[in-house]
Each structure stands twice: as C-alpha cells, then as structure tokens.
Amino acid sequence: MLNPGFVTRKALAAWQDIPTFLPQFQFHEQHRTIVHTTRPDAILPLIAEFDVQQDTVIRWLMSLRQIPQKFLRHQHIQATSNFGMHSFTLLKRSPSELCYGLRGQFWRADFGLENVPDADAFQAAVAPGSAKLLLRYRVTELTPGKHELCTETFIYCPDRKTTLKMSAYWLAIRAGSGWIRKRTLEAVKSNIQDVKSDAEDKLTR
C-alpha cells in the first residue's frame, strides 16, 4: 500500500485480513487508539451511537464539505447537512466488529448516494460511475484491560474513470476524513474512561 492510501494490485494480492464485504478495493485508510477498560463490550456501542454533529471540529469539517453544494443551482439541501452514521447501512454487528456500507458518487456535492437496504444490496455489483465504501471498526484485546480500537475505510471503484474521480476526491478530503476518524476514536475513548471513573467513584463512596 502506498503512503497516500492508494492500494495497488500487488499490495492487494498480499493483503492480510481482506474484508468479506469488499474483497476488492483501491483505497484504504486506518486509524487506531488504545482503550483501557474492563468493559470492551461497551466500546462498539459507543461508536454506533456517536453523533458527529456533537463534535465541534467534525461539525466544522462537515460544513466545509457542504460549500460546493451551495453553488449548485439544483440543490438537495439535506443531502450533506444530514450526513452521518445513519447514512450508512449496517452490514455486521458483533461484540468485536462493526461494519457499515455506503454506495454512491462520493465526489459529487450531494454524494450521489444509492439506496442500500441491506448487506446483499451493498455486495451487489456496482455500476460504472459509482463506488462502494466500507467502514470497519474492530476491538482487539492486547492484554487484560487493554484493548485496541481500530477504524478502517475501504473504497472500491469498478472502472478507471471512476477511480480517477475518486482519486482526486480522496486526495482532497483524506486529511479531513482522517481527522474525523481520529476525533471519533478519541471521543469513544474518553467516554469509556468517564464511565470507568464514575464506576470507581461509586465504589469509593
């Protein structure tokens, strides 16, 4: 895998742990954090419930993403302003893994999102001109009470023209997207620690 997050065919052929829902992809991004907790089962529910609009930085980044839409004559006003985890389709939920899917033309001002009711719809062949995005969260125990929370983004484009459009968009938004992922991980980590502190306070009373 090249540093900017582009995945070559050679890199994909040697890839470890290829996601079941998206075995082919040309783009990949990964972020990790360490969470100290005796309740690892509480980590992923916090991810699922996280509201990006509650974070000032993420809300600001999302507002920047909406700027191109304001210059369009035919606007779909709610397309980006309401964008969040609810825009994704839940593909898998387990105590250690969460997977979400999205299909569309992400470089468009309104994202060009497709209706994806379930995992089967997500895995169906995507037409040239559109792309698939898989968002995966995983919790891995390192030692008792110490866990790694990892988020990964995978994107697949079915043809060269779409790949070129996605490449330009990827370079433009990757830094901001990475910032959002990091802020999400840190927010979950902080919430887990707050829960731990509250529990400890109750025990000392």
* Amino-to-carboxy terminus distance: 52 Å
Care to count the β-strands?
Answer: 5
What's the helix-strand series?
A: HEHHHHEEHEEH
SS class: alpha+beta
Radius of gyration equals 18 Å
Query: Largest beta sheet: what is the strand line-up?
Result: 1-5-4-3-2
Helix content: 25-40%
Number of helices: 7
DSSP strand (E) fraction? 15-25%
Shape: globular
Largest sheet: 5 strands, antiparallel
Mean pLDDT across all residues, rounded? 84
pLDDT below 50 for ≥5 consecutive residues: which ranges? Answer: 76-80, 197-205
Q: From the structure provided, what is the oligomeric state, counting identical versus distinct chains? A: single chain
Describe this structure in words.
The chain is α+β, with helices and mostly antiparallel strands. It is built from seven helices and five strands. The protein has a five-stranded antiparallel beta sheet, with helices on one face. The longest helix is centred in the last third of the chain and has 45 residues. It is globular, with a radius of gyration of 18 Å. The termini are far apart. The C terminus is likely disordered.
